[in-house]
Amino acid sequence: MKILIIHNKYSSYSGEEAVVEAQINWLRSNGHEVVTYFRSSEEITSIKFGKIKSFFTAFYNLKTIREIKQLIKKEEPNVVHVHNLYPLVSPAILPVIKKMGIPIVITVHNYRLLCPNGLFFNNNKICEKCTGKNKELNCISNNCENSFFKSTGYALRNFWARKREYYTSNVDVFLCLTKFQKNKLVANGFSSEKCEVLPNFYNKQIKEVDYNIEERNYIAFAGRISPEKGIPLLLAAAKKLPHISFQLAGGIREGYEKELEIPENVILRGMLSGKEFEAFYKNARCLVLSSIWYEGFPMVFPEAMVHKLPIIAPNMAGYPEIVEDNFNGLLFSPNNSNSLASCIEKIWNNNTLYQKFGANAFIKVKNKYSSKVYFNNLETIYNKLL
Fold first, then answer.
1. Of 27, 6, 373, nearest to 198 (Cα)?
2. Is the predicted pLDDT of residue 216 greater than 90, yes or no?
3. Do domains 2-201+370-385 and 213-368 have the same CATH topology?
4. Calpha distance 190→238 (Å, rounded)
5. Domain boundaries, given as residue ranges, for the chain
6. pLDDT exceeds 80 at position 212
């Protein structure tokens, strides 16, 4: 099978970029031919009047359309798999591909099909106003991007794509990361029959390794050190548990650490990679996700589960689908530091429970989130279209 993958890369590397790379590598290693069409948001800085031009290419990019048409005629792919289209590709390419008779699959990495900034998050709280009465106008009135120019651009491009029915009329399958995400799309006019649930996957070999429980001596957090990740909430819980050590791995937004009140039992590790990250998971007692927004499918979940780590996550969005309460971790009441602290202490003080959750986490990642399971399901979806 030949698959054309279309993706507008972001200006900085992210979990989404890692998923795209892993998907391409796995498809090729399993005998499929992969053709790619990439643009990168980094190009904007090198183009004269790049920001202004990218405002318009988000609606329609004649150059991109011409290049993709030529690529399809040359390569004759069986399926086109889309990841991100903004701002240099544009969803205007979708009806063009549809007219050429090629089925289109989109991986829904975030909530951009419904929310201009893709996050359902504004002013440090969950916001779904753009699915309501005034739709995308809310992005402008609330200045969701903290820039009137940027907020207006995001709102208008979503409005245009919705009114032109670029997605609803041309895409054959939407690959949602969770049932929660699928339900959001369906509740807002997307066809249930076109929405499939296909979670992210662990893209390395899953090997069972035993760990020394005595060496697992801190609570781990991995991700951006930023407001939407619920860092103040996590620090508040840590302050209630001075006898427990916490280590936070991830990049910090410039100046954000000055806004935080960091207890003595919390260490900020900064960015980790390779063997450092392996050791970080290996020596942790459990992983905490303290987010106060709807993440899609955090890659830290399968990474932690491979290392037999129980996970503590908020009881909202798609998190309970991955972290099953009292099976491979615990769920706490969203935005409640007392509830979070209680869950942490419960796992910290009960080795039997900790080992049970860790073993179940490993079983779940092997049975549901392995690359083999992912690609068996993806191939099934491709074959249905053909």
1. 373
2. yes
3. yes
4. 41
5. 2-201+370-385, 213-368
6. yes
Could you write out the DSSP letters of every residue in 31-79? T-EEEEEEEEGGGGGGSTTHHHHHHHHTT--HHHHHHHHHHHHHH--SE
What pLDDT was estimated at residue 171? Answer: 98
- Quick one: average pLDDT of 359-385? 95
- Tokens 């937004």, residue located: 253
Q: How remote is the C-alpha of 321 from its chain's centroid?
A: 15
Q: What pLDDT digit, counting tens, does each position of 291-346 carry?
A: 999 999 999 999 999 999 999 999 999 999 999 999 999 999 999 999 999 999 99
End-to-end CA distance of the chain: 10
The fold of the 2-201+370-385 domain, in CATH, is Rossmann fold (3.40.50)
User: Residues, the chain, total?
Assistant: 386
Class of domain 213-368: alpha beta
Share of the chain above pLDDT 70, in %: 100
Which pLDDT tens digit goes with each residue over 66-87? 999 999 999 999 999 999 999 9
Tokens of 282: 């290996």
Main-chain dihedrals φ then ψ at residue 97, nearest 5 degrees: -65, -40
Enter the tokens of residue 292: 């106060």
**Could you tell me which residues come within 8 angstroms of residue 247 by beta carbon, excluding any fewer than 6 positions away?**
218, 219, 220, 221, 266, 267, 269, 280, 284
261-283 burial code (b ≥16 CB/10 A, e <16): eeeebbebbeebeeeeeeebbbb
pTM, 2 dp? 0.93
